[in-house]
Amino acid sequence: MRFTFDPEYASIQTYPKPSAKGFNLQRQKVIWLTIIFGIFFTLAGYYPTLSVPPTKRSAVLAQAQEQKGEIISTSFSKPLILPHPGYLTTRFSSYHPGIDIATGLGMPIHPIIVGVVTETGFDIFGLGNYVYISHEKGFKSKYAHMGRVFVKTGDKVSSEIILGEVGLTGNTSGPHTHLEITLEGQFIDPQKLLPEIPRI
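Request: output the structure for the sequence above.
Response:
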């Protein structure tokens, strides 16, 4: 059997040439998607971090905290005092930048050391009535969930002065003082500076 070639039935399959415009559109989509996902994860609180072996990291952090505590403890001209007697109910953590000291309703609250009242008010986000005090060398302290407040902005206060009373304002399940201490805007664990507080 012989086969003959017939030009009338012959056809050449052609394909469209790659488009530079289409490639650029795809690249733009990838870039925009990357930006959108980056913004989403940033707002959600996910950040890229360098991984460090847990043991080494823990040791480094512990050493840094110890050195920081030693430096801070020698920064005050006088020893710090507790704002009032009571029991430690909540420790300092990244989710709770202070400590909670439970005591009786109406207990007088004193400043932990001499300072100047820089702000008083009501915090609508859960802390209720509060007093903010500036101390020497960039330290500040905040007392929250107060009932009545007896001081005003600009008052100079010492450990003998009563700032106010322990109350139930803000989000709280019982009478206590939420105490925060900062150094140049950085939160510090108050237990590293204060006398020992008994736990329930």
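The chain has two helices and ten strands.
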